[in-house]
Amino acid sequence: MNFITILEKEQKKIYFISLFMFFLFGTIITFISSSIPTLLREFDWSYTNTGIILAAGSLGYFLSTFAAGFLLKKMGPKMLLAASLTLYSAGLAFYMFFPIIILNVFLGFLFGTGKGATDISINFITINIEEKGKSRLMNFLHAFFCIGAITGPLLFSLVHSLEGNFHYLFPVFAIICFLMGMLYLSTPFKGTGERKAVPGQGKISKKIILLLVMLTGILMLYVGSEIGVTTWISEYFVSIFHFSVEQGGYIVSLFWLGIFTGRTLISLLYKGDRQERLLLILTILCATGVSLLLLLNNPVGSAVFTFVAGLGYSGIYPLVISTTGKHFTSSRALGFVVTGGGLGSFTFPLFIAAISDKIGLNHGFIFFLAINIVLVLMAGFVFIFSNRQKA
Fold first, then answer.
1. Of 41, 96, 221, 277, which one has the greatest count of Cβ atoms within 10 A?
2. What kind of fold does domain 2-188+204-390 have according to CATH?
């Protein structure tokens, strides 16, 4: 892994802390997703009420990512990480602990706000220690999120099978995340600052603004779809194929195993700088996976294409972040793009909850298929733009 060994000592330390932080984030997010079928029945929540609670976290994420692009300039990544992880921990500590909807909405908003600023800060650091035009560090970082995302459902299924109270793990997660914030605060930050613009890179044109809008749109659709599938795929297999709650949790792990496999292969094997071409290929793959997941009225076939969809989703987020760093130097540009992800995570899972309540969960997943088709078209634009820039 020479792409890690070439980092300076201080950069390596921050990067390794960030790898563990992304592992934690992945574990927590899919642990929550795997608990949805149990919470629906334990608290007697409707799909819509559950969607509103989840959307509150996404709203906090959306607002936070927008603000973080500016706050990074003022506070720097170290102070922003310590503050955002403190906020994240405060919201997470008693999340989904009580059936009071308004309380969970408030707590979800808090930890979503904390996560948004943390994501921006870690991605910003990684862009600036990465070799320009590459995405291996970024893909490897997000691969660790996948390891956590695979672990979360397995952890939930273990606790559930032992008839333990999964609610008590939320304060444990919160304490660990708070300590991670303090670890960032005590770590020297060197060589993680914003890159200086190269001649011509700072020029603003209509085409470059359109590229920024398209990258933002891709992240909006991707995050909305990925979080939506993560949140509802367990319930889909429980309600459509009559899986047990534990088996539904394993499907979430299978989806994230696909994402992990793709991100690991990209970080270890892909040494090129044609991020835009790879982005287009992956969007086509995830659209194919989601369509066949829905078309096959067979739990085994649908499970296989859940994995395939995960492979397609795998590199989209890190490739978009790396492409942003390739064309833009400002943290505000990164904040703008990631804000698109926040908007997607806020709106689309809420849409699927409302659709599922009205006409069924399978129709809600058809909505995700439509999102993926648009994703392919937008990735196609970015690919064409990149080719014209090179010509």
1. 221
2. Growth Hormone; Chain: A; (1.20.1250)
